[in-house]
Amino acid sequence: MSTQAQVNKIVASFLAKQDDLLIELHSLGLDTPELQRPYVIKAVCEALTGGKGWKVQGESKVVLDTKHARFEFLKTRVRDVMNALKGEKRTSSSGKSESVDAVTKLLNAFNKMSKAEQKKFLKAVA
User: Fold this and answer.
1) Is it the case that residue 96 has pLDDT exceeding 60?
2) Is the pTM of this model over 0.85?
3) Which one of 13, 60, 88, 122 is CB 3.0 to 4.6 Å from 97, fit for a cystine?
4) What DSSP line would sit under the chain, residue for residue?
5) Average pLDDT, the chain
């Protein structure tokens, strides 16, 4: 298999996993970034630092622990996941987010649908 074919396979797998992530979070009722973020923070910390690196601020707000040794790394990875959920990639040096592709645009439109519309859409494409 050529290098290009191997890269194509890896990228296709990444895009499929990104779509699956979005659909799965929506099926859990986590339809907005505000609802998704605390779970993403905990999941990233669990995956990368054995569950360390986050804390509860105030009464119930989950945030990254700025005193953790890998805070910047965790912050970047949380941002990567949140951007993937929005169909964006890391911001350019100008600070503007760029859409990834047509599939991502469709996912963004899907995110804006009501739960009933999402169910109807998923049923139609199944």
Assistant:
1) no
2) no
3) 88
4) --HHHHHHHHHHHHHHHHHHHHHHHHHTT--SHHHHHHHHHHHHHHHHHTT-SEEEETTTEEEE-TTSTTHHHHHHHHHHHHHHHHTB----TTS---B--HHHHHHHHHHHS-HHHHHHHHHHH-
5) 84
